[in-house]
Write a structure and sequence with these properties.
By secondary structure, the chain is an all-alpha fold. It has one domain. The protein is built from 14 helices and no strands. The chain has helices at residues 2-11, 14-31, 38-54, 68-75, 77-107, 111-127, 147-160, 162-171, 180-200, 204-209, 215-219, 221-247, 251-269, 277-298. Helix 2 (14-31) runs parallel beside helix 14 (277-298), helix 6 crosses helix 7 (147-160) and helix 12 (221-247) packs antiparallel against helix 13. The radius of gyration is 20 Å and the shape is globular.
Length: 302
């Protein structure tokens, strides 16, 4: 029974929805701005679940012989279809509620915000190749080395850009004149990109057979760990220390914000050997939750 619940939460992407909410709360507290409305947090939780589940819709039993996650989707196809329908219904209800409540503020939203929303939506749509092929056939998910940067950008935008735009709509609060949100956005982009590269290690054999030139396929596991992941994490760690010095962060706040980087380096160096899928879903993705929690705890030291 416990394993079935675990599969439902992690294979069904409900943990991913929790990560999106946690990162949004972390960003809100760090920027010291008002929280968004409950409707928005419902959207932040549900949209990633729907979005990531889409990739596994239509999975078959034959596919599941090599992938436990695909196998779970093939065996629970009706449950997945009904859950997608219910979640989409709730999402649309929350969206139209917000639209009806704030449509005047949306119409008067400055053009720079529309540009940001347009870029994020476009990248999210192109990631799965959702644009009809008679326009152009482009699937960013198949771009190999670019893929983790796209994933990292979408996650950073979810945590650090979209909430600020909704805050402008719902409360009229504008924090874009501060440079702090830019630093938080870049930090989340880098951290989530590293996380996505680590997650690609799970699909090394499949990506290699599919000629998808990810970092792991191009460079191999060890070189990816030593020459891609480690330098990115050290650069992020040093930039955090530099920014902390400039902004005069207290030692406690610095300490808690450094924990996710140190843990990620440790996990990255442990990935020379192939792991089971739950290691990636719980430990690798769990690093994002650790980052959010550490950021929230660190805000107590201000």
């Amino acid at each position: 029974m416990g394993l079935k619940i675990l599969k439902f939460i992690f294979f069904g992407n409900y943990f991913v929805g929790l990560l999106a909410v946690a990162l949004t709360i972390e960003s809100t507290l760090q920027l010291k701005v008002p929280f968004n409305s409950l409707s928005y947090y419902i959207l932040v939780f549900l949209v990633p679940i729907i979005y990531y589940t889409y990739a596994y819709m239509g999975a078959t039993i034959s596919d599941g012989s090599q992938n436990p996650r695909t196998d779970w989707y093939s065996r629970h196809s009706m449950l997945v279809k009904w859950s997608q329908l219910i979640l989409c219904t709730i999402t649309l209800a929350a969206f139209f509620h917000m639209l009806g409540r704030d449509y005047m503020a949306i119409l008067h939203l400055p053009i720079k915000y529309w540009i940001i929303v347009g870029i994020v939506v476009m990248m999210a749509v192109l990631y799965y190749g959702l644009v009809p092929v008679f326009f152009f056939n482009l699937n960013l998910r198949n771009t190999g080395w670019l893929k983790p940067f796209i994933i990292g950008f979408i996650w950073a935008a979810t945590a650090n850009l979209i909430p600020l735009i909704l805050l402008k709509i719902e409360s009229g609060v504008d924090v874009t004149e501060s440079s702090f949100w830019v630093f938080l956005f870049m930090k989340n982009w880098m951290f989530c990109t590293v996380n996505a590269i680590m997650f690609d290690m799970k699909d090394y054999a499949i990506d290699s057979n599919s000629q998808l030139k990810t970092f792991v396929v191009r460079m191999g596991l060890k070189k990816t760990i030593y020459y891609v992941l480690t330098p990115l994490l050290i650069a992020g760690l040093l930039s955090l220390l530099l920014f902390s010095f400039i902004e005069h962060f207290l030692p406690g706040r610095i300490f808690f914000n450094l924990i996710p980087f140190v843990l990620t380096i440790i996990v990255a160096w442990s990935m020379n050997q192939r792991k089971k899928i739950f290691y990636y879903l719980i430990v690798i993705d769990g690093l994002i939750l650790v980052k959010a929690l550490c950021g929230i705890i660190g805000m107590q030291f201000i």
